[in-house]
Every structure is written in structure tokens, then in C-alpha cells.
Backbone:
């Protein structure tokens, strides 16, 4: 428990995260947070602290303490929590538990990033494999020597990426982040604070390769990266982008470089490969660049509790501690939205969404290349290739149809955001009006065309045309 004002200050400065939650007042939703921490690796809830980290204090601390204890006892199985009043902040400490899974009001919750997510009982049973088993990334790493391996330069690089405040004791910070537990570095901590990850995980690296043609028969280039996880993500993305084509687009005398596949989509998939891979496997993450496609492969298949249908709808990380730190380091943009965002990025770039192949041991993401590369990976300047579109529909209308097919209904603001458009007139004249005039989309409120609530959706004609376009593209 916290017994010193300094420790409370350090927790608040670090902000909300995988093991810390702020509540301004009261016990609203506190049961689910207690349950989520119990199903993770424990945590601390600070009641009397705003979301921005400002101490506002609590009233009637004794009554509030009694309510918290009552909520903890209502968890199934009941929890024993430590409660202390520090500087008018009620500090509720949930120790690591050994009787997982826990439920509150018949529902199951798990900590994910800086929030809690509800799971069904079957999902949480699968997620924990069996009750009481801790996640591999939370376990002690026997090869990490805190005195020798945790150098100042490594910590400073990590602190900058994780946006940690200056002047704080590094051991205390890493303990508060749960990267150090009981005086030992966890696996997640070792993977993030490594000069060479192979020292702490024999298959923790990533192999990148460029092949001639569409098979692995002839290899043109290969690179293996074995730094820390965050660095390897950057290295793998840089490798992909260096091996695919880049078009030079001239706009108003300015030159714009446009890769044939969207970089942010590549990054999102590479992050997922590292965040959700099975680090107990003897295989590593692999990146393959072929003449016709790019493949990102990671060992482990889907995490327990996940199904292919849940991709883009739920996020159940196999390595929750590592995932939470990547989220803190902005490698993960929005929890649970990765696959949806990848599809949007591809729609905006005018390329096919990736194909996912999953089995028990592997998770493969395959992007179809829209521009043929030059052998040996030289960065050639090529004109952009637009996907074949059935006349008289232009590329802009085709992108709009694909977007509405994915999203169902969207208003002007949603379409602009998804397609990265800033000019409202351009959206209206180039996308909306042609599609409306051709009968491919329709208003959701036809009696009020200018309503601020107005949205657009595909017509039957639009759906049929989109299907024809996709069939033609597949045939080509």
C-alpha cells in the first residue's frame, strides 16, 4: 500500500494505465474496475483524482471505504482489497489474485490498456487457459540482470518513448508500471528494455526478406532485426517501405511521394504481430516482400477467446502487459480498432484490404501489391496504378462505395474523415453528387436533404455494381 505522499504523487504523474485507474468521486462502475484488475495482475484505483490527474479529494472517507469493501465482497469469488486515505485520496489496492476468473454482477471484465472490457465466461475461461495461470509476458525473466542489463541509456530511450516524467527513480517507475515485480524484470520489461532481445527470448527477433517473383525460390535480400520490441517494429516497417514502389505525384508544382501500400496500415499489422504473437514459440515474426504481395506472419494463431469474426470488434491481447505499454508508447492508436482502421487506410489509399489467414500456430496478413516492384528492391518512380473500376464510375465514387459497404451509413464528416478529405466542396462534387445522380447511394433522410443528421447508404444498384467491380478485379 502507499504510505507516503511521494509514492502517491509518482502514481498520479505516471497517469492512468494497465495497473492504475483514476476516479473523481463515488463508486460508480467501481465493481467492474475491481473485477478487471483482479482478472489482470492487480492494480490501484485512486478515488478523489480527476481524469487529468488533479487531486480533488473525497468526502466522508469512512462511508466510501465501507462501500468499496462491500463491492469487493460482492465480486465472485470475493476480493480482499487494501484501502488507505492518503492526502484526501482514497487509495484502493487490488493485489494480484490466484482464483481467476472473477466476475461482478454475473459479468466478467479484463483490464486492457487504460480501460476495462467485458468478456463472456467462455471467453475468459479460454483467455486464461485455466484459472490462476498468469500471462507469459507478466512472468519473471530469469535471464535479465537488473544491474547489468538495465543501463541508463536503455532506460532513457524507453522513458522518452513511454512519455515518462524526468527526475523519477527508474526502479520505482518500472515497478509502478508492473514491468518489475518482486525485484525481477518481467518478460514484457525485458522485451522493451533490451539491447538485443535474443538474450532474453531466443525467437524474439524479426526476419525480413525480399524475394524474386511470387515464390520463396530466389531470395534477393534478407535482414534480421533483434533490438527491443519497439525498435524492431520501426525496423520492420522501414524494411517494407524500402522494398515497395513509391510514386511521385505532382500537385501544384509540389512533389508528393505515395507508396503503393499505405505505411500506417503496414505499421498497424506489424505492431499486431509483435503485440499478439506467442513468445513461447520457437518461431519468430516474419516479413516477406514478393513481386505481387507483402506478408506479415507471427506465431501463435489467435489469442484464447478470439475468433476471426471478432477481429475489428474486440481486442483480447495475448500479452496484455506488453500491449498496454505499446499503447502508452503510441504504437497502438486505439484499443480494439486496429483492423477497422487498417481497412479504412486501404480504402483511402485505393488498394485492396488485406487477407487474413489463421490456424492454430500462425497468423498471416497478406497485402496485394498494386504496383510491380523492380528486382533487387530498387525504389523506382512509377505512376500510381488505380484499381480497375467499371465505367462510368470513377475512382472517387468507387472508394465511396467501398467505404459505405464497410460502414453501412455515414454522414459528410464521417466520409471526409475516413477518406482523409478536407475540402467539403470537393467531397460534394467529386464523390457524393456523382454517386447520388447515378442512383448508387441514397439519403437516409430523403425528406430532409440538408438535415444535419443526414447520412448516405448504398442502394441495391450500388451494391450490385460494387460486387461486379470486385468480381472483375478478382478476375483480372
Residues:
Amino acid at each position: 500500500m502507499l504510505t507516503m505522499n511521494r509514492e502517491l504523487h509518482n502514481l498520479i504523474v505516471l497517469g492512468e494505465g494497465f495497473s492504475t485507474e483514476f476516479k473523481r468521486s463515488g463508486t460508480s462502475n467501481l465493481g467492474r474496475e475491481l473485477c478487471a484488475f483482479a482478472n489482470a495482475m492487480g492494480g490501484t484505483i485512486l478515488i478523489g483524482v480527476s481524469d487529468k490527474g488533479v487531486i480533488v479529494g473525497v468526502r466522508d472517507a469512512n462511508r466510501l471505504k465501507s462501500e468499496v469493501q462491500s463491492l469487493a465482497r460482492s465480486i465472485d469469488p470475493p476480493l480482499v482489497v487494501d484501502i488507505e486515505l492518503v492526502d484526501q485520496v482514497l487509495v484502493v489496492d487490488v493485489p494480484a489474485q490466484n482464483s481467476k476468473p472473477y466476475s461482478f454482477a454475473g459479468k466478467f471484465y479484463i483490464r486492457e490498456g487504460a480501460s476495462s472490457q467485458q468478456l463472456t465466461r467462455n471467453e475468459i475461461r479460454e483467455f486464461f487457459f485455466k484459472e490462476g495461470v498468469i500471462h507469459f509476458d507478466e512472468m519473471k525473466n530469469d535471464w535479465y540482470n537488473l544491474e547489468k542489463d538495465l543501463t541508463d541509456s536503455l532506460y532513457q530511450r524507453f522513458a522518452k518513448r513511454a512519455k515518462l516524467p524526468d527526475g523519477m527513480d527508474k526502479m520505482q517507475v518500472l515497478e509502478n508500471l508492473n514491468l518489475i515485480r518482486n525485484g525481477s524484470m518481467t518478460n514484457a520489461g525485458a522485451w522493451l528494455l533490451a539491447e538485443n532481445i535474443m538474450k532474453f527470448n531466443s525467437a524474439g527477433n524479426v526476419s525480413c526478406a525480399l524475394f524474386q517473383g511470387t515464390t520463396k525460390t530466389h531470395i534477393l535480400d534478407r535482414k534480421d532485426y533483434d533490438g527491443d520490441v519497439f525498435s524492431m517494429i520501426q525496423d520492420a516497417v522501414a524494411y517494407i517501405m524500402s522494398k515497395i514502389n513509391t510514386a511521385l505525384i505532382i500537385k501544384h508544382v509540389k512533389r508528393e511521394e505515395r507508396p503503393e501500400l499505405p505505411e500506417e496500415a503496414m505499421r498497424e499489422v506489424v505492431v499486431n504481430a509483435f503485440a499478439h504473437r506467442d513468445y513461447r514459440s520457437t518461431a519468430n515474426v516474419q516479413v516477406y516482400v514478393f513481386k505481387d504481395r507483402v506478408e506479415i506472419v507471427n506465431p501463435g494463431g489467435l489469442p484464447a477467446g478470439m475468433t476471426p469474426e471478432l477481429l475489428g470488434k474486440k481486442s483480447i491481447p495475448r500479452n496484455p502487459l506488453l500491449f498496454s505499454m505499446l499503447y502508452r508508447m503510441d504504437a497502438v492508436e486505439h484499443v480494439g480498432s486496429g483492423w477497422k482502421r487498417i481497412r479504412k487506410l486501404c480504402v483511402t489509399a485505393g488498394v485492396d484490404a488485406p487477407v487474413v489467414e489463421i490456424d492454430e500456430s500462425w497468423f498471416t496478413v497478406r497485402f496485394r501489391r498494386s504496383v510491380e516492384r523492380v528486382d533487387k528492391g530498387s525504389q523506382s518512380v512509377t505512376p500510381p496504378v488505380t484499381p480497375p473500376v467499371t465505367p462510368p464510375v470513377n475512382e472517387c465514387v468507387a472508394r465511396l462505395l467501398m467505404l459505405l459497404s464497410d460502414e453501412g451509413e455515414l454522414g459528410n464528416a464521417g466520409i471526409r474523415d475516413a477518406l482523409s478529405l478536407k475540402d467539403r466542396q470537393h467531397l460534394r462534387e467529386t464523390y457524393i453528387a456523382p454517386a447520388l445522380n447515378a442512383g448508387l447511394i441514397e439519403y437516409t433522410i430523403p425528406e430532409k436533404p440538408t438535415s444535419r443528421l443526414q447520412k448516405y447508404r448504398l442502394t441495391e444498384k450500388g451494391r450490385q455494381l460494387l460486387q461486379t467491380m470486385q468480381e472483375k478485379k478478382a478476375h483480372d
